[in-house]
Every structure is written in C-alpha cells, then in structure tokens.
Write a structure and sequence with these properties.
The chain has 713 residues and is of the alpha/beta class. The protein folds into 4 domains: 170 residues, no CATH class; 94 residues, 2-Layer Sandwich (Beta-Lactamase), CATH 3.30.450; 154 residues, Reverse transcriptase/Diguanylate cyclase domain (Alpha-Beta Plaits, 2-Layer Sandwich), CATH 3.30.70; 241 residues, EAL domain (TIM Barrel, Alpha-Beta Barrel), CATH 3.20.20. The protein is built from 24 helices and 19 strands. The protein has an 8-stranded mixed β-barrel with strand order 11-12-14-15-16-17-18-19, surrounded by 5 helices. A hairpin with a 5-residue loop joins strand 1 and strand 2. The longest helix has 42 residues. It is elongated. The termini are far apart. The relative contact order is 0.05. The structure holds ligand C2E and magnesium ion (2 copies). One magnesium ion (MG) binds next to loops.
Amino acid sequence: MARPTRAVVDHLPASPAQTGLRRIRRLTEVYAYLSVTVFTLQLLFVGTGHERLVPILLVPVMLAAWRLWPNRGGWAVALAEGVIVHGAVFVLPNPAPVINFLFAVTMRRALFGSQERFPVKVVPAMLGYVSGFVAWIAFKPVVVTGPLVASVVMPLMGLAVAALALHETVRSVRLMEDAHRTVEAVVRASPIGLVLLDVFGAPRLHNDRARELLDWRGDESGRVPCPHGPDITSCEHGCRAGDDPVEVRVTRADGTTGVLAVQAVPVEHVSEQHTLVTALDVSKRRELEDALRTRAERDELTGLAGRTHFLHLVDEALLAGEAVGLLVIDLDGFKEVNDAEGHEAGDWYLVSAAERIGRAVGPVATAARLGGDEFAVLAPGHDVRESARLATRILSELARPLTGLGHDTVIRASVGIAVSSPGAGTAELLRDADTAMYVAKREGGGRVRLFRPEMGERVLARQRDKADLRTAVSDGQLVLHYQPIVDLATSEAAGAEALVRWQRPGHGLLGPGEFIGLAEETGLIVALGNKVLAGACEQAMRWREQGRSLGVTVNVSTRQLSAPAFLPSLDRVLKTTGLPPERLTIEVTESVWADGAAMRGLMEVRETGVRVALDDFGTGYSSLSYLQRYPFDVVKIDRSFTNALAETGRTAGVVRCIIDLAEVLGAHTVAEGIETQAQADWLRNAGCAYAQGYLFGRPDLAENWDTQPSVPH
Ligand code: C2E
Ligand code: MG
Ligand code: MG
C-alpha cells in the first residue's frame, strides 16, 4: 500500500503530538497577551506626541479581534497589527517591546494555522525575533530604558517560548510520523479493503486487501464497483456519500463470484475533498442469508413455494390489480396412505403429487404447498373458465398411475377455485378457495368446485356447529341412552348399548347421526368418545352394584381407535371405575379394516380382555376373509337384514349364513333392529343368540330402565 492517508489520522483520537502542540499554543497565547499589555503600557507611559493615540486606540480593537476570531488571522487583524507596530516604531525610544509584540503575533498566527505548517511558519518568526535583537544591539547602544519587564524579562521569556515551541514542533513531527506508520500498519493488516478516492474519484491510495477484493490486476488500480454500475465514481445514486454500505456482486477474472459490502465516506477536515471507500467481503453471510431466504420461500419437502412466500405472491398480484385465479388442492385419502404405508411413503406420495401439480401448472402459474397434504396454485390473469381448465389439468395429471408404493395407485384430490374480484384481499380469496375445496371434498372428493357465496354461509354454519359441539363435550351436554341387548332364549336383557345424544340448547335432543360425522372430521370424536366410554362404564358399575348382571357396549369410531391415546384412556377408565374388562364390549364398524392404525389399536384392545363387536355387519366392505383373520367376540347383523327378512328368501339365507359363520369363528351374533315378534322368533330359530330392537326396548336414559319390561332386576 502507498502511504496511509492523513484522513485516517484525523479520525484517530488526539495524539501526544497534538497534545504537545496544544500546550505550546496556550503558552504562546499567554505570552502574546502579556506582550500586548506591556506594549500598551509602554505606549501610554513611554511614548511621545499625539501619534501614540493611534496604536492606543487600535490595540483594544486587535484584542477584541483575537477574542472573537481566535483561529483567524484575517486581513483586518493583520492591518491593525501592522499599523500599531509601525506607529510604535516612530514613537518609541526602545524597540524591544515592539519586537516582542511582533514575535508574539507571528507565533500566535503560526500556531493557530495548520499544525503541519507550524515548523515552516515559526522559523521566520524566530529569525525576525533574533535578528531584531541583533540589529538593535549592533546599531544602538543597549540602553535599558523604560520598565525592566519590557526590556529584559519579556525578550527572555520570548526566547524561552520560541525554544519550547521549536522543541515541541520537532517532537510533534516525529510523533506524527510514528502515528502515520502505525496507521499504515493497521491499514495494511486490515481485513477490510480500503481505497482513498481523490476529488475526481480516482483511486489515490489503497491496501492489498482492496486489490484482492476488487480483483485489480497488475500495478494499476482499477475501478470500485457499486450496485448501479461498474464504477462508483460515475454513480449518480448517492453511493459515494451513502451512510450505509451497499452490497455489490462481483465476478472475478477467474470466474468466481462474491459479494462485497462497499461504503464510501467523505473524508473531512483535509485540504482536498477525498472519499474513503471500504470494501468488506460478505459472500459467506450473503450465502447464508440466501439459503435462509430460500428455506423460508420454499417448502423443504417438495421444493414448491412455501405458504408465507406464496401468500406474499398473492398479495403482490392483487396489489398489482391483476385478476387472479386461486386454486386450493387437498389430496383425498392421504391420511390412509400415511397410516398404512408409513411416513416415508407418505412423503414420497406428497413429493409425487407436488411434481405433478408443478408439471400441470407449468410456467403460467405458481404452485405452493400450504402444509400437510394441502397445495395451492396462483394463476395470474386467469378467469373462472381458465382456472377451471387448469384445475382439471391438475386432477388428470395427478390421476396418472403411480407406481412405487409396491402396488399401483392414483392420487385423487379435491380442488376449490376462487377468482379475485376488485378489492379482494388475500385472506378472503384463500378462504373462499378453501371453502370451495371443502365442498368438493364433502361431495366425495376427486372433483373441482368453484366458490359461490352460499358455500361460505354453509361453512360458517359448520364452524358454529363445531364450536357448539366443543362446548357440548366440555359442558356436559352429551347424554347417554341405553338400549337393551336381549338374550333371545330368555327374552331378558344381557347387556345394553350406550348411544350418545346431544342435548343442544335451542335444538332439542339430537341423535348421533347429526353430530358424530362432524366430531370425526374435527377430531372432537376423541374427547367425545372418552366421555361416552367413561359414562357407560360408570353406569355398568352402578348396575353391578344394584345386582344387575348387565354388560355394556360402547360404539368406538375408527378415527378414535387409531388415536394413540385410545388404549391408555381405556385403561384409565377401567381402573377408575373398577369395571371388569369382560363386562365392556366396544363396537367397531367394518371401516376399521381400511385403517392400519385402528386395526392395530383393536388388537391391543382385545389383549386387555375387553370384548370387540363388529357393528352393522354386512353394510360395509364385508370381507369374510378379514372376519377370519381378525377374530371378533360379537358380530352384529345390520338392521337392513332384519328388515328384509320377511321380504326375500335370499336375505334369510344370507342371515343364516352369517350366524353359522360367526358360530364357526366362535363369535356370538346380535341381530339389530328387531321390531316384530316374528323377526325375533325367526332369528331365535335360526340360531341367533341375542337381539336388539324397539320390540325389546328403545334407547332411553338409564333411570327410565325400571319401566322397561325386558330388563331383569
Ligand atoms: P348403531 O351402533 O348401529 O346403533 C343402533 C342404532 O339403531 C341406534 O341409532 C338405535 O337407536 C337404532 N335402533 C335400535 N333398534 C332399532 C329398531 O328396532 N328400529 C330402528 N329403526 N332403529 C333401531 P342411533 O342411536 O341413532 O345411533 C346411530 C348410530 O350412531 C349408531 O349405530 C352408532 O353407529 C352411532 N353412535 C351412537 N352413539 C355413538 C357413540 O357414542 N360413539 C360413536 N362413535 N358412534 C355412536
Ligand atoms: Mg352400535
Ligand atoms: Mg349397528
């Protein structure tokens, strides 16, 4: 690096050199005032004639000027001094005070100017002073006239001050050179590139780091780039006076790239306007920031846009006043894939879906993953028709056969579309598309639905129902009714099925058909199911305590059974109530076979000694092979068979077959929905052990059971 700059020195704290100079300056100042006083007194008491009045009047002016403009030796002050001194020469017999005064004035000026020029200025002052005395001694006999102070003490003091000033000057120059060398070492070792630009913007000085960072080749210094162009000098965006560093991407001759934080600071308090440019390599930090930004913008699993970034893009498109089509896509049955095949397969399924959505969308729109199995597409400039076409394209791309899970499968999805209207916000648009998607899903999935305002009302009503149901579960609005399960041989109740009802304020008593579906969708079924389970077990214990030998049967939904918390809460209920496990039967429907987690849960339940019944047998995807593989304690023949018994001989054949099969598998059969004595008789004759139906008793509160005919005491 070339010499370090003075500019850099200026920004350092006061150096010892500066302190020394300041001290000598103060001393000279005192001496100057003293000599002025002596000179004035001499004029007053030693001078002759009226001429002396001129300097007498001017001295106060000069003193005032020194006070008011201590740092300035302006022409007016110089003129006043000149007149005083020259006037004095005419009127004074002893010139010593004049010489002192002249010396003090010159010294003072020299010290108040630039420190750098002090040695140069102080030399003539000294020469003038010494030669003045030499001339005086040589040409005039030394006559000590006037007060001793003016003639002897003042000259001697002047000499002492001059000697001190010289000494201090020499010392300060040395110290400054030291300071320069120190700064040079600092600048050289600096990890920051430093370049000093002159008033024309040409690099004057720079360190090696700057050369390296700015990729300057050879001996020549090159350009300092800025974000607005190849050279900061020609930048008209204020880069040369910026308070904050600007980041510039640079490509070096060897092809590597990097990012520099460049800051240009004007260097003040120097004779020429300079600019100091600092260049810092921030490539690593920038790389990290870019990586973090990408992480925030992209969904890690699928590589599609992430939720936050996507919403930001929708915001921007809406702000730009564009018509925007927004598609919300939810995969159908993803939970089953995830549960049955495991999370790795689930991830792979999601990635495949993302790839297909991305492919269907192409460059005209932006696809994103909003979370879970929910995706979205922003289609700028798409009206209803174009958005619908895009949605259909996505569905058919998703529906192409997917191999890789060990068996062929297809990806099904429900798509909701909302198209922006003027003034619509992102949240509103997303909510509408989401509502439409929800409707598509409720209608069976695998379809596209366009948002219509009435859909919103339905969804609102649902949200109200959901909130009310949550309150119902926690506030004890759920009521349990019990329906007897009768032993057909004795016509006496052997057990009771607990059937939940909701005493909903303002709506009356609601049957499970009106809220179980909602509870399952929202996950509230878990809390609801626990309440039912606990209530039923408590009731069974109460019966036991009353000496009634009744088992209790509780319906458990597949969703509830697949929750990992099911088994622990079942255990807890049995422990707290003290009910023997074999007194409890849980009823599950055939949908349990399609859910791996629920199936595993069921196996664990059986190990506790709790009995398991297969409810509504014959209505779902009944598979006799499943029935064989997973043994049940009870098979409940669905009401539809009982109803149809009298109608066709074929139904009777099927029912007989179910009863026989259950017997082979070691399970009891319970026929549901018995309303007539004929149905009961037929079933008894066919070998069915138990039955349940209005004939024996309707579901009712336990306290009303005393009036039921078939309940034993
Ligand atoms: P399910 O388990 O098959 O219950 C039998 C249903 O048939 C009950 O309807 C009962 O009132 C009705 N029923 C009984 N005998 C007759 C009859 O002779 N004729 C006719 N027409 N119907 C009869 P409910 O109480 O409305 O329950 C409907 C379904 O709701 C139940 O079917 C069960 O799947 C579900 N459910 C009830 N309580 C719960 C519960 O606590 N948890 C869960 N997850 N599901 C429940
Ligand atoms: Mg049931
Ligand atoms: Mg049933």
